[in-house]
Amino acid sequence: MNLPQLYYFRKLAEVQHYTEAAKALYITQPSLSDSIASLEKELGVSLFQKKGRNIQLTKYGEEFYQYVSESLSILEHGISLIKEKSGHISGTIDIGCIPTLLGDFLPEALDLYQEKNPLATLNIYHGMSIEVAQGVSCGKYDIGFCSMVDDMPDLVFVPITYQELIAIVQDNHPLAGRGAMYLSDLKDYRLTTYRDTIPIGKVVRKLLKEKGVEAVYSYDDAISIAGRISKSSKVAIVADTPYLRQFNNLAKVRLLDVPKDTRMIYMVYSNKNFITSAVEAFANFMVANCLNMPE
Q: 13-32: string of b/e by CB count within 10 Å (b at 16+)?
């Protein structure tokens, strides 16, 4: 029995298909079959059984999988810790994130990480919070940065930074001269904000309801909201993100009764998916260096 056999077994147990597992492992299917057959012979039990066109673990395979997964995780954790100390973290990390983080926070954090770990490869993909969370859950992304998404029990959300909620108006609006005000001051205004079907929209509308304020108009993103306000006399509640910089006729007004961290951004990973040492090292770095870093 050798280490590659254990990695082959774990991948096949997770994929439950010889061809797909072989592709993921960058080996031929006969090589994978021979390796598993050798492992089964040494153990004296069958680890897999056929299930239609696929395979599944036998009861012995399920028990062995638990031991193998735990052992490899401990080994990889040790490797990660030693590499962190030596400054030689390598590997590829696929990261999903919401677009508003790409203007400043995430690039700055990634640059800082790669200064310390130049051998690491970081691939960045963007989408809305629900898309990012689903991508992490299904293994498309190793790690994600997004809003809290409900009803996804396999995901772990770690608070990492925030985007302050503010009011925006045209720079000739009567409220434009006020550097700060209370949300309750907007009761007589017809507000625009995010749609309530997305995470940030739920957060904002809950807050508005608590303050006795109502939003009449809804959009899916900050660009749509800011674009609407730049052409009208209305008021909007929006997260203060780099997207607002492109609208030079808008004025920002701070909301004194809204905590700055109301719109929290989380780092998210799945507790059902395999975490490589590179991903673990990256997650540890983000928590240690970027927790609640304001944008």
A: bbbeebeebbeebeeeeeeb
As a whole number, mean pLDDT of residues 154-167 equals 92
Are the C-beta atoms of residues 129 and 267 closer than 8 Å to each other?
A: no
Distance CA 277, CA 204 (A): 37
1 burial type by CB count under 10 A (0-12 exposed, 13-18 middle, 19+ buried): exposed
**282 three-state secondary structure:** helix
Bridge-based pairing of strands 235-239 and 165-170 is antiparallel
116 neighbors 66 (Cβ within 8 angstroms):
no
Which residue type is seen at 11? K
Q: ∠ CA(134), CA(135), CA(140), 5° rounding?
A: 150
Structure-model confidence comparison of residues 279 and 253, the more confident one: 253
Give the whole-number percent of the chain exceeding pLDDT 70: 95
253 with 173: CB under 8 angstroms? no
Which residues have a Cβ under 8 Å from the Cβ of 262 and sit 6 or more positions away?
162, 164, 165, 203, 207
Q: Do residues 294 and 105 make contact, with C-beta atoms less than 8 angstroms apart?
A: no
Phi, psi of 117 (to 5 degrees): -135, 70
d(CA 54, CA 56): 7
In which band, very low, low, confident or very high, does the pLDDT at 131 lie, cut at 50, 70 and 90?
very high
Write down the pLDDT at residue 24. Answer: 82
Long-range pairs for 220-223 at CB < 8 Å and ≥24 separation? Answer: 220/128, 220/194, 220/195, 221/99, 221/128, 221/194, 222/100
5 exposure class (CB count in 10 Å sphere: 0-12, 13-18, 19+): middle
Q: Which of 259, 258, 260 is nearest to 182 (CA)?
A: 258
